[in-house]
């Protein structure tokens, strides 16, 4: 993906009429500036559907459970497209839609 095509004006995720993250939101996740890990995670937390899935910190790891909801799964796919950020924090993925990220610093503890 071309990083230059991302609009810096996008500050909050957008959703379609059914509550799914829009393509614009997914592209923003996939193209986020690599130097802003905290902003990326904040944006993802805001885009996440907490009614179906869950995000929590346990044992110093950030855990994202999709709850089987395809909107949350599309967020995980967009995260994986961001090679630099994904590979700097990804710890493991588990059957059933659980992703575990190692987050540096105390901000997420």
List the helices and strands and how they pair.
Blueprint (H helix, E strand, L loop, with lengths): L22 H9 L5 H11 L6 E5 L2 E5 L4 H12 L1 H7 E5 L3 E5 L7
Antiparallel strand pairs: 1-2, 2-4, 3-4
Helix pairs in contact: 1-3
Plain-language structure description:
36% of the residues lie in helices and 18% in strands. The chain has a four-stranded antiparallel beta sheet with strand order 1-2-4-3. It is of the alpha+beta class. It has four helices and four strands; from the N terminus they run ααββααββ. α1 (23-31) runs parallel beside α3. The N and C termini lie far apart (32 Å). The chain has one domain (11-102).
Secondary-structure element order, N to C: HHEEHHEE
C-alpha geometry:
globular
Structural class: alpha+beta
Helix percent reads 25-40%
Nearest-integer average pLDDT: 89
Distance between the termini: 32 Å
Count of DSSP-assigned helices: 4
Oligomerization state of this entry? Answer: single chain
Strand order of the largest sheet: 1-2-4-3
């Amino acid at each position: 993906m071309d990083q230059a095509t991302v609009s810096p004006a996008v500050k909050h995720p957008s959703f379609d009429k059914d509550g799914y993250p829009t393509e614009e939101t997914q592209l923003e996740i996939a193209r986020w500036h690599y130097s802003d890990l905290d902003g990326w995670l904040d944006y993802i937390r805001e885009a996440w559907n907490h009614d179906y899935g869950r995000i929590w910190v346990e044992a110093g790891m950030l855990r994202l459970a999709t709850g089987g909801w395809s909107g949350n799964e599309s967020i995980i796919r967009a995260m994986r497209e961001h090679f630099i950020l994904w590979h700097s924090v990804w710890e493991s993925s588990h059957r059933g839609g659980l992703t575990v990220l190692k987050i540096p610093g105390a901000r997420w503890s």
